């Protein structure tokens, strides 16, 4: 069955691939992005799959921008079956190196942005669910991260924004059950996408050699670079798009899905090991520290 689907953050990465894949499957896709000058990658992906979709401007931090898109969908399609909150970015840096503005900006997009889009979309989604003959065919899929379950050093602000998203999503799962709307959290690990480079930033202070965390910041950058070169445990972004399509097509889903080998191994270790043991592993690998208190 054709579904009307709104996706945020479609200029690259998971959002771009998911929009193209779902459009090729016959769904009506509203692919949105903050900067429409970056739509070329999506247009090329659509062309390669011999399909098309609507591409609209949407900044998740601006209510006017969000409401305009929801109004457009309501006027054109009259319903909204699936909302995929994908827009987001990551800032790396140790807490003391992060400014208050950098932390707040991280939350404005990754957490409050999701809330804003969801709040605007819910009236139309409730109406859609009430008219649907199939319970839980109306879905909200929030793209979180493995960092929302277990955060690494140097990713505190990003991890905190994803922890907040996880808590919000879990509460929303219960709140929307009576209306027949299903909420699902997808938690990707490390993937090779252009979005990883474009949407990842570093704390300005962390780049200064006099930072007390300078050597740890360099170690983490080097480690990340090695992972991307060796591709060990790094997944293909198309796999995430496939998972999203499966979630949409499935009658009932789990609340959370992990995506990627690295993420699954780390979360598994976090769940079975005493935290003291787990912390020794992380400190050694990420920071080169051989002991923990």
How do the strands and helices of this protein lay out in sequence?
Blueprint: E1 4-7, H1 13-24, E2 28-33, H2 40-48, E3 54-57, H3 63-76, E4 82-85, E5 90-92, H4 100-131, E6 138-143, H5 156-176, E7 181-188, H6 194-198, E8 200-202, H7 214-230, H8 237-249, E9 256-259, H9 261-272, H10 275-287
Parallel strand pairs: 1-2, 1-4, 2-3, 4-6, 5-8, 6-7, 7-9
Helix pairs in contact: 1-2, 1-8, 3-4, 4-5
What does the model show?
This protein is α/β, with parallel strands linked by helices. The protein has a single domain, classed as NAD(P)-binding Rossmann-like Domain (Rossmann fold, 3-Layer(aba) Sandwich). It has 10 helices and 9 strands. The chain has helices at residues 13-24, 40-48, 63-76, 100-131, 156-176, 194-198, 214-230, 237-249, 261-272, 275-287; strands at 4-7, 28-33, 54-57, 82-85, 90-92, 138-143, 181-188, 200-202, 256-259. The strands form 2 sheets. A 7-stranded parallel β-sheet has the order 3-2-1-4-6-7-9, with helices on both faces. A two-stranded parallel ribbon has the order 5-8. Helix 1 packs across helix 8 (237-249). The chain is globular and about 60 Å long. It starts with a strand and ends in a 6-residue tail after the last helix. The model has no long low-confidence stretch (mean pLDDT 92). GO terms for molecular function: oxidoreductase activity.
Count of beta strands: 9
Q: Report the C-alpha radius of gyration, rounded.
A: 19 Å
CATH architecture: 3-Layer(aba) Sandwich
Biggest pleated-sheet summary: 7 strands, parallel
- Mean model confidence by pLDDT: 92
Q: Looking at this structure, what is the CATH superfamily?
A: NAD(P)-binding Rossmann-like Domain
Pfam families: adh_short (PF00106)
Family: Belongs to the short-chain dehydrogenases/reductases (SDR) family.
InterPro entries: NAD(P)-bd_dom_sf (IPR036291), SDR_fam (IPR002347), SDR_oxidoreductase (IPR051911)
Keywords: Oxidoreductase
């Amino acid at each position: 069955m054709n579904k009307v689907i709104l996706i945020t953050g479609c200029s690259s990465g998971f959002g771009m691939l998911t929009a193209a894949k779902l459009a090729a499957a016959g769904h009506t896709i509203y692919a949105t992005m903050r900067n429409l000058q970056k739509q070329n990658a999506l247009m090329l992906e659509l062309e390669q799959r011999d399909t098309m979709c609507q591409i609209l401007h949407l900044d998740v931090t601006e209510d006017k921008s969000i409401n305009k898109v929801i109004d457009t969908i309501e006027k054109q399609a009259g319903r909204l079956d699936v909302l995929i909150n994908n827009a987001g970015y990551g800032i790396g840096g140790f807490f003391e190196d992060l400014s208050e503005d950098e932390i707040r900006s991280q939350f404005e997009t990754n957490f409050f942005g999701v809330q804003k889009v969801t709040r605007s979309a819910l009236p139309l989604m409730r109406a859609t669910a009430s008219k649907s003959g199939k319970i839980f065919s109306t879905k909200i899929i929030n793209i979180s991260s493995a960092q929302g379950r277990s955060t690494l050093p140097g990713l505190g602000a990003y991890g905190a924004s994803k922890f907040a998203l996880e808590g919000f999503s879990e509460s929303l799962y219960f709140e929307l059950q009576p209306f027949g709307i299903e909420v699902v959290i997808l938690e990707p690990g490390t993937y090779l996408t252009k979005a990883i480079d474009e949407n990842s930033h570093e704390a300005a202070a962390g780049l200064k050699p006099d930072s007390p965390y300078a050597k740890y910041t360099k170690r983490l950058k080097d480690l990340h670079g090695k992972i991307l070169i060796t591709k060990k445990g790094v997944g293909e972004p198309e796999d995430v798009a496939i998972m999203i399509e499966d979630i949409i097509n499935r009658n009932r889903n789990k609340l959370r899905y992990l995506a990627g080998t690295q993420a699954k191994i780390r979360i598994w270790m976090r769940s079975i090991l005493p935290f003291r043991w787990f912390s020794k592993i992380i400190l050694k690998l990420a920071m080169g520290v051989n002991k923990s208190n």
